[in-house]
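#struct-pred
JK: can someone run the complex with sodium ion? inputs below
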Amino acid sequence: MSLTVIALLMILVVIVFFFLGHPLAFVLGGVGTIFGFFLMGSTFFSTFMDRIFVGVMGNFTLVAITLFIFMGNLLTISGIADRLFESMRYFIGSIRGGLGITVLAVCIILSACIGIVGASVVTVGLLTGPMLLRYGYQKELTMGIVAAGGTLGLIIPPSIMLIVMGDQAGLPVSNVLAGAIVPGFFIAVLYMLYVRIRCGLHPELGPPIPAEEISLMTFGERLMDFIVYSLLPLALIVGVMGAIFFGLASPPQAAGIGATIAFLLVILYRRFNWQDFLACLYQTAKASTMVLIIMVGASCFTGIFLGLGGGKAIVETLTSLGLSKWGLYFVMMISLIILGCFIDWVGLIFLTFPIFLPIARLMGFDMVWFVVMMALYLQVSFLAPPFGYALFYLAGMKIEGIKWGHIYRGVLPFLILQVIALLIFTSFPDLVLFVPTVLYG
Amino acid sequence: AFTQTIKWRLVSVWPAYSAIFQSQTRLVKSIYELSGGRMQISVHPAGELVPSLAVFDTVSKGAAEMGVDYANYWANKNSAFDLLGSFPLLLSQMDYLNWYYHAGGKELANELYGKFNMLYFVNGVTPVASGIRSGMPIRSLADLKGKKIRMSGKAAGYVLQKIGAVPVMTAPTEVKQALQTGAIDAVSFNTPSIDWSMGLGDLKYCIGSAWNQPSSSGGVIINKDAWNTLPPDLKKIIEVAISENNLNMSTLASWNALTYTPRFKEKGVVNSKFTEKDLKQIEEWTWEYVIEEAKKNPDYDKIVTSMVQYLKDYHDSRELEEPYAQGRNSITLPKLPHLK
Amino acid sequence: MGGDFLIKFSNLLDNINEWTGRIFSWLVVPLMIIIIIEFITRTLNVPTHWTFEASNFVFGAHFMLVAGYGLLYGSHVRIDLFTSTLSQKAQAIISIICYLFLFFPFVLIWLYYGWGFFYSSWSVAEESLSLWAPVLYPIKFVIPVAAFFLLLQGISEVIKSIVTIRILSELSEEVFE
Ligand code: NA
Ligand code: NA
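RT: done, structure tokens with the ligand placed:
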């Protein structure tokens, strides 16, 4: 059996068992164990421990994951996120589509901290989906906004996905985060413009807040509310990111500071109670272990996969296809989208990086740009029907009156905008590299 | 005749994107060709099979038969390993090679690695590092006070603390940015060519030479059980191939250092030197550290005494060789108990 | 009778991991505090030698020790898109197969080699490479312990599937009668 066949078989078995509903972490670890036992011999299992101990538990960059999740949970569970939404709604909800734009903005802020597709889509969806519908937003548009907004956070720094990607690619993490700024905000603005224009043309799709409701508060009150409940949390995010970009803090430190400030905000807003705080601790534990145990499983899988020479075999097969530089680029990115339909980003990074990055290096792509592009393509795969991850989470929430059709139709326009952005940033890499170049030379 | 292909795995402490990694591919290719294809070794960069710091255990346990190592990384297994990679003030490039091949170094190294079921072969010694590079003027030991400095090694860390500087750990990929953002003020990395590849040419000041790293040695480690399964001719082939690779690597490192130094000059980098007085002070602190460690660990004592003995015995000869001598006669020597 | 015992045993295992989760979830608090100390001391140019490594230890212990708790709550990413259309009995059977062929081999290897990993570090009192140089065996001990918690939870999950199958079979027999 050739190495390529074994490599493909390993991936196939992972996909089959994942579809049988077993947790990804243990599918990866289990497939690694079985293949390792028969093809590598059991002495090799000692390397699992080194990979777990040094590669995952001992990886300082990953400390940021736990702390950003903690920060996100503090903001969400304490109800600060609700107030954030309310204050923004009163402030800009009076324009057509304003509520939808608000949701997108909230999504960016929240999922910026959470950075897990499932968690951010669910958080944002539960928080804002029913509210948009109640204010008369069209079902399709609502679903599109929630799904697009929930996944957008993945590529807007600080995103734990970008942190893990930079770390695993052997790149300075701050460069990757800086590279994602222009694409992330460009896409955010595209989304907002779309909502504004669509609702401007068809006000019935996204009506503004009724004047009576607005009049309950004076402009001064609304402004004050906006400053206290929107700008403060926003300042937190900007501050945390700034600390990373300007080298005042490493990502884990920034996350630690962010979590501390979030905790102080909870106290400041008089939102602290033991029940919520415990819920926050438990939620943080569950989400952290979810991400990091996948890394443990993936790390063991990858060790066997690469030890068998699977990575090299696939690289050789791909490069022997006789494709041009850009041909290979699109083969890689499209396989990423397809794999992204089945596997969460954590697993994907471990599966694709050892295969794609050497090819990209060989082809002479700028690595920061390449990694940022991978992140952008992944967001497409989370949104793309029929298998997009975000769509499943959305459907899983069972919001009243929402059918699969609403979700699919709603997501489509956002997906088109996303593809447009992809083409732009593929054609003009300098747009991505501009910020890292200015910041780090 | 029936010949069987032997397939081994080589795990490396160096990542695929590092320059040193090329030499491993070169070594494996030599072994393949010399053995007429009987010996096939697959090369795995750091992180692929195991992370850098796990290379030692992986080869020790036989999960991979062969490894490319850097001895300082194993100082927590036995502090004596700290002496076999790079160490302040001790052996220069040529000294290390002399010591290893002719003054008992090979036997001592193998005695130490043997305790962990491994054989050791030196596989490339780089010459003295460039020195401490910084964007701010550092012209003496006193200027280092209060500065955040990236410099590897425990002994160097001890000296830095004595100086009143702050040793900071920074991953190689983050060094450039750490400098730009002020997370570190100065860095001593490696030879000029490697410094250049890290983008350190932008730093205006360099104070040398690098007392912290007069040379830096890499090795090949082989699991003993795996080694014992090899027929005699393959053993010889591997040994000779590593020696040849060592020659190539060591001279290439010297040559690169030679060719890259002018580039720094063209960029206007200002070089300065530590004074005799400064170096004497550094010697004092380093020997303090060495004597303490030698008391704690007999293996450490044995190896460091052998190295210092080499320096002591070579002293008169080196003086005679001046000004054509390689390396430097230290001003003082540590008063180790077994030094003859 | 037997079923009753199984259910009780499964409940016991669930309870154990409920508590491992509730206890070790707290580790995020010292993690945050250590990181802040690290940041402050570094900014003031009086870096501490232990914070950097200590934060990594606490982080590692946190996510590893709550892995069983995560499994109890089904937090580990999985897709039930296709299996959810099957009968409950079929789902339970598939789940048992996955546990037997993937989960248990992996977690048992993890436990066995994790114990060896800890034991060899403990027997030589292995220290870390850093200036702080703490002994490493306490944090290495986390690896087999995490595997042990996962193993317990895996057993509980399999029991739940067995009980489901049994109840469904009994129900269908009753229908036949
Ligand atoms: Na984000
Ligand atoms: Na997807």
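RT: quick notes.
The CA atoms of residues 160 and 221 of chain A lie 36 Å apart.
The mean pLDDT of chain A is 83.
JK: thanks, will look after standup
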